[in-house]
Amino acid sequence: MLLSEQAYQKIDRELTKFPADQKQSAIMASLAIAQDENGWLSAEIIEDVAKYLGVPPIAVQEVATFYNMFNVTRTGKHKISVCTNLPCALRDGEKAGDYLKRKLGVDYRGTSADGMFTLIEGECMGACGDAPVVIVNNKHMCVRMTEARLDELVAGLRAQGETA
């Protein structure tokens, strides 16, 4: 077992939401639990989740690699996803992404030298009217991200890292 007892208890709670013969329905939630605890989903974690759910490892691997909210490679402490789909791109999404690339010293799919940030391009986040939009760690949406607001975001995340 690679996860904590608390993680398996959370997965058990997810399993109660589905019929006993539909355990694969808990794959997404189980992967989210595992990633929250581990930071990313190694091949070993994916296999462990599959074993725990009693489903083929390929079924879990397919979900983990299909959705960009799951990290199948190590990421920085903070993953910043920038929406670059056309509506956001037309409303400074690309400009925001370029600014973050320069500020963090990385390209998309890169991790900053200090290990604090991974920058990725994101798919539509459903907030086109509030572009440019970024999502931090798959959980916190930030809208109307000017250079000044991006500076504040990065500084705040850095400060969190220094106190952790």
TrEMBL record:
Q: Which cofactor does it need?
A: [2Fe-2S] cluster
Q: Which domain of life, per UniProt?
A: Bacteria
The note describing how and how many cofactors are bound reads:
Binds 1 [2Fe-2S] cluster.
Per UniProt, where does [2Fe-2S] cluster bind? 83, 88, 124, 128
Kindly state which keywords UniProt assigns to this record, in alphabetical order.
Answer: 2Fe-2S, Iron, Iron-sulfur, Metal-binding
- Catalytic reactions of this protein: a quinone + NADH + 5 H(+)(in) = a quinol + NAD(+) + 4 H(+)(out)
Gene Ontology terms, MF aspect = 2 iron, 2 sulfur cluster binding; metal ion binding; NADH dehydrogenase activity
The UniProt similarity line reads: Belongs to the complex I 24 kDa subunit family.
The family database entries (NCBIfam families) matched by this protein are listed as:
nuoE_fam (TIGR01958), PRK07539.1-3 (NF005723)
Name-wise, this protein is NADH-quinone oxidoreductase subunit E
What is the organism field in this record? Bordetella flabilis
